[in-house]
Amino acid sequence: YTLQGADLGSERFLPLDQPGVLLVTGEGISSLEAGEIWHLLDVRMNMPVVLGELNRIPQMDLSEYTHILMPSGNYEALVSQIPKLESWLKQGGTVIALGSATQWLAYNGFSELSFEKTPKDSTRLKSYGDLYLERSAARITGSIFEAEIDLTHPIGYGLTRDRIPVFRNHTLIPEPVHRPYAVPVRYTDSPLLSGYLPGNLRNEMPGIASVVIDSYGSGRVISFIDKPNFRGFWDGTNRLFMNAIFFGPKIASISTR
């Protein structure tokens, strides 16, 4: 018996299985994000991870893996394998996706996420000489934002502060998620901590989701909109990513609805 909290061996203790991790790599996949994930798992955590090139996945037996990690990239080559991925997820697999990979999963029905479309200004002619400057001014190439974490959620396990800095280098904006327990990490009301934020996005960023959990059959789809493993030294969100690997399969499906 314990003096506080759950007693050892009670029903509140869940057994964890050793993850069998497949990291998608290869042509069209962000080598930087794939490298950051590989470095975290193989070098820092001394944890085995299989690197599977995108074009070889059709020949792979996914039942050997419990997790598929999807860095940002172009996944059109995987369209023919959607039924295979659906079957694997329904049997309890866990997909953890980053950045643009979350868009591909949402577009193909693996998550309930949707993303805002950037409006195009076609109301007037513009100077060709301003093209580069205007495009550059609309980008986020590396800024730090403040996010709020639900410390009771498995994704936040081990953290003691409910605020955390997150890194992003894109303008991917998810639509509001109206599932109260499915967004364990979201931006605060005044999120910009450091870096540049385009003026047209200043009203879009407060409150947006940074991490979203979906269920697919018995499986889980965990979407990291931002970059949790940036350059191997973003230790705070490294923990969120590792929690997603170890605790992701145990997240209650009812919390994702």
Order of H and E elements:
EHEEHEHHEEEEEH
Report the C-alpha radius of gyration, rounded.
Answer: 19 Å
Provide the helix percentage.
10-25%
Return residue spans where pLDDT drops below 50 for at least 5 consecutive residues: none
Shape: globular
In a few lines, what is going on in this structure?
The protein is α/β, with parallel strands linked by helices and 257 residues long. The protein is 20% helix and 21% strand.
Features:
20% helix; 257 residues; alpha/beta; nine-stranded mixed β-sheet; globular
Describe what you observe in this structure.
This protein is an alpha/beta fold. The chain is globular and about 70 Å long. A nine-stranded mixed β-sheet has the order 2-1-3-4-9-8-7-5-6, with helices on both faces. The mean pLDDT is 93. It has helices spanning 31-44, 82-90, 100-107, 131-137, 235-247, and strands spanning 21-25, 50-53, 67-70, 94-98, 143-149, 163-168, 185-194, 209-216, 219-224. The protein has five helices and nine strands; from the N terminus they run βαββαβααβββββα. 36% of the residues are buried. Helices cover 20% and strands 21% of the residues.
